[in-house]
Amino acid sequence: MEYDFVIVGAGSAGCVLANRLSSDSKTTVLLLEAGPEDRGLSLKMPAAVLSNLKSTKHNWAFQGEPEPELNDRQIQHDRGKTLGGSSSINGMVFIRGHALDYEGWRQAGCDGWGYADVMPYFKRMETYCAGGDAYRGDGGPLHVHRAAPKDTITRAFLEAGQQAGYPLTDDISGYRQEGFGVSDRTVFKGERWSTARAYLDPASHRSNLKILAQASVQHLVFDGNRAVGVAYMNRAGQIATARARREVILSAGAVGSPHILMLSGIGPADHLQDKGIEVRHDLPGVGQNLNDHPDFVLKYNCLKPVSFWPKTKPLAKVAAGFQWLMTRRGIVASNLFEAVACVRSDAGVEYPDLQIIISPIAVDDATWKPLKKHAFQIHVGLMRAHSRGELRLRSADPSAPPRILVNYLKDSRDRALMRKGIRLVRELVEQPAFSDLKGDEIFPGAAAQSDAELDALLNTHTTTQWHLSCTARMGAETDKGAVVDARGRVHGLVGLRVVDASIMPFVTNGNTNAPTIMLAEKLSDDILGHAPLPRIEAEVWRNPDYETRQR
Which pLDDT score, from 0 to 100, does residue 54 have? Predict the structure, then answer.
């Protein structure tokens, strides 16, 4: 088996690469995916998010290491294990991030990754439901949907934001991120629109593209310092080899890509030697710089019978499921995250560092089952955490999952920011728009007011937004922590790239699926030798009084 390109991982980035690289009929492409095909009906149903996350059929469900600042709790890190990867099981929230995220990438030594450089690829990848404009695309494979919120709780959230003095924005991913606005989601005609649907399905008929599911890569194959292929276990449990004439491309995600690099002898030399792995290339940054977005949820009783709880009762669920099967409409066509706020935590913060999302239903943290009463919950996410974690090998056995330590709230600044977010939410729900809706605070509870009391609850209830990233970050070769250059090429080796969320220098301000797809779109041009798309200089709103005002 020999191909021009061997892509490892058919996730959010890998599906994009498979489509774009195989669009050149002169190239041959092999796409390997460790998980099964994406045939489950639940993978098409937007409201089946929790069902998909509770199953391990399409979810790696990695168990993290005990988190020192979270009472040694082990956080589960859900990652897609199927065609489409995490885009097939995630919450479908579409946010590009802030323009200053990408300016930060550029300033960190990643030439060609400024906002004007990435904007044309964001536009190329999408078909926006409201049509194209200076910021949004209208001819791409990824359909992005926006629904005008109809439920009372979500509308109250948007109104309360205005009453609290925050701006409204008509597009979180456009001119103005900061403020309260309607959330976009990757849904098309009532179905989840994963990268498998958007990119892989249209290309699957091509004779120059081979797709192999249930093919788990064990390690990379080298000839000297050149990557020439991969060894993988096929669905029959046999080890096979696929060779690459031009490049091997790792798109196995922020967990899978550094894991495969280290299993192949590429990473921190002392760690590899400790695990009995022969060091091929000492690259200290592999598995380091792990970023994530911490999450904390506040829950409130709802004084009116307007929450979505009754729609989760058995008969109502059957009726809603039937409606969706027949029409692709109704509650099942929603991810129940229809409004979002991107806000700054304090004066002096240049652009949003907190994300606040409301859901018109509250669920139990342990079981994710709906609370059996009218209630709603509000998520506080920290978008630019200061803490950094790491990913390390558990053993030299490829089947052994890696050790994932995020170090949530290890940096005391993160804890202070999360407390600030909790207090901002409490201020929000005291606005007039919530006066006839908000009942008692179920959690954390009105009694928890002091820093110490909130810290104790952060220890027991902080969790993840499932945005692991940055474990093989971009940077100059002189940067000892960098793993790849600005073109995704692994430093010191030939014929090997990484193209996924692991190469982000730092995580973007929002959900990471859209930026990951953009990364693959942009680097697909470089891999094929195409010139970058022309830069788009788009104006971006920033609060002119940010130095003295929080809103």
Answer: 86
Of the candidates 109, 34, 69, the residue with the CA atom closest to the CA atom of residue 474 = 109
Paired with 482 in beta bridges are none
For 436-489, what is the HEC assignment? CCEEEEEECCCCCCCHHHHHHHHHHHCEECCCCECCCCECCCCCCCCCECCCCE
Query: Helices then strands (H, E): number in the chain?
Result: 13, 26
User: Helix H segments across 23-88?
Assistant: 49-54
Cα–Cα distance for residue pair 483/475, rounded to 1 Å: 7
Report residue 200: phi and psi, to 5°: -80, -45
State the pLDDT at residue 40: 87
CA dist., res. 414 & res. 295, Å (int):
11
| Residues that are catalytic | 467
Q: What tens digit of pLDDT does each residue of 371-390 get? A: 999 999 999 999 999 999 99
Tell me how far apart the alpha carbons of residues 95 and 1 are, in angstroms, rounded to a whole number.
39
pLDDT in tens, 143-174: 999 988 989 999 999 999 999 999 999 999 99
The 10s digit of each residue's pLDDT in 195-248 is 999 999 999 999 999 999 999 999 999 999 999 999 999 999 999 999 999 999
Residue the block writes with tokens 């060894």: 231
Task: Give the mean pLDDT of 489-511.
Answer: 98
> Could you please report the per-residue DSSP string of 293-345?
-EEEEEEEEESSS-SSGGGGSHHHHHHHHHHHHHHS-SGGG--S--EEEEE-S
**Given this model, what pLDDT does residue 147 score?**
85
Element (H, E) at 415: helix 412-428
48/348 Cα distance (integer angstroms): 40
Determine the CATH number of domain 2-527. Answer: 3.50.50.60
Q: Residue 427: helix, strand or coil by DSSP?
A: helix
pTM: 0.97
Per residue in 526-542, pLDDT (tens digit) is: 999 999 999 999 999 99
Question: What per-residue confidence (pLDDT) applies to 52?
Answer: 87
Measured at the alpha carbon of residue 278, what is the angle toward residues 272 and 280, in degrees to the nearest 5?
95
Q: Which runs of E-coded beta strand occur in 314-434?
A: 339-343, 354-359, 375-382, 390-392, 403-405
Residues in the chain: 551
CA angle 532, 85, 395 (to 5 degrees): 105
Domains of the chain, by residue range, sit at: 2-527
Cα distances from 476 to residues 127, 285, 286, 362, 492, in angstroms, run 34, 12, 14, 46, 12
Among 322, 379, 351, smallest CA distance to 183 is for 379
Q: DSSP labels for 510-525? A: S-SHHHHHHHHHHHHH
The DSSP symbol for 291 reads B
